[in-house]
Design goal:
Blueprint (H helix, E strand, L loop, with lengths): L4 E2 L4 E6 L5 E7 L9 H11 L16 E3 L3 E2 L2 E2 L4 E6 L21 H8 L15 H19 L2 E9 L2 E2 L21 H12 L6 E8 L13 H9 L5 E6 L10 H4 L3 E2 L2 E2 L7 E2 L2 E2 L4 E7 L9 E4 L5 E4 L13 H24 L19
Antiparallel strand pairs: 1-2, 2-3, 3-7, 4-7, 5-6, 8-9, 8-10, 10-16, 11-16, 12-13, 14-15, 17-18
Helix pairs in contact: 1-3, 1-7, 3-7, 5-7
Amino acid sequence: MSGNTLGKLFSVTNFGESHGPAIGCVIDGCPPGMALSEADIQFELDRRRPGTSRHVTQRQEPDQVEILSGVYQGLTTGTPIALLIRNTDQRSKDYGDIAQRFRPGHADYAYWHKYGLRDPRGGGRSSARLTAPTVAAGAVARKWLLEQYGTVFRGCMTAIGEVEIPFKGWDFVSQNPFFAPTSEVQNLEDYMDALRKAGDSCGARIRVSASHMPVGLGEPLYDRLDADIAHAMMGLNAVKGVEIGAGFKSVAQRGTTHGDSMSPDGFRTNNAGGILGGISTGQDVEVSIAIKPTSSIISPRESIDVTGQSVEVVTKGRHDPCVGIRATPIAEALLALVVMDHALRHRAQCGDVQVTPGPIAASASPLSS
C-alpha cells in the first residue's frame, strides 16, 4: 500500500494529478443491488466544485463524473466502481516560475526529497484538486448508509480566521457561500476582501457530524472509530488538527462534567462525540477540524531553489484565500467513508449479535443541536 487507499472492506483508491488529463477513484467493496446513477454523485461534487463564488479559486471545472464500471442497469454489481472526473481548465503556465523553487507551506520540498522529482503544475498529486474523487466516493457511501440506517452527514464552517461563526441552524448552510450555519454573510465577505487586498490568507474550523448512527461501529485499540476518523481527516489537505466531541475543551472539564450521564431516555450530553472506547454509541458523531491558511499567496516569501540558493517566491495562479471554504463537503465525505467501512466490518463480524435494546441517544446535547 502506498498511501492512496482508504478503508478495508469499503476501499477507495484515489488517482490522478491536478493538471493531468483526469482524476478519479476506484471503490471496491460496495454492496450489490443499490440503485446508483451519476446524478447521485454529481450533487455532492457540485457542492465542492471550484469557481462557485468569488471567494474561492476561479478555476472553472465542471467536475462531471463518469461511472466506468461496477453499475449495471442502474444497480451496483458488487464489483469495483470506477469513477472518472476529467480536468478541463488547467493553466500549467502559471507554475513555470516555481518549477525549480520550493513554495513555503507546500509539499514541494518534501515531495522532491521523497521521490527525487515532482510535478509542479498546481501541486500535482498534493493538490486539493484530488479531493474531488473523495467527495464522489463519499456520495456512494452516503447513499448506502442513508438507505440502510437513515444516517445523515452534515457539516458547516464554525470559524474563519479570527472570526467565530455562531450556529443558527443547519438550514442556513446550503444557502451560505461559506457553508456557515447563519444568514450573515457581509462580515465574512468583508473579512475575505481585506485578506485578498493584503495578499494574504487564513485558516478555518469546520464541524461535521453524522446523525442517526448505528450503535457498535468501531474496533478495539488501533482500529477505533475515532482513530480512523482522525486518520481520514488528517488525509485532507491543509488539516492540522482533529477534535472528537469536546476535543481540547475536555482538558479544562472535570470528570463530573465530561462523562456523559445516562438515563432511561438516553445520554444527557455528548462530550464523547458519539464514540466510547472507539465504538459508536448511537449518538451523533461530532468532529471538528482545523485547516491552516492557504499557502499559495501573492505576497513575496523567502525560500530556496533546487540548488539550495536563496530565492523569493510569489505564487501565481487561481487559489482559494481560505481553502476551508470548500472543505465542508470533503469532510462530510471522509466521515461517510469511515462510517461506511466500519458498518460493513461490523456487519461481517457482529451481524448476528443481539442485545437487549439500551437507551436511545438523547438529542438534548448542545453538540447535536
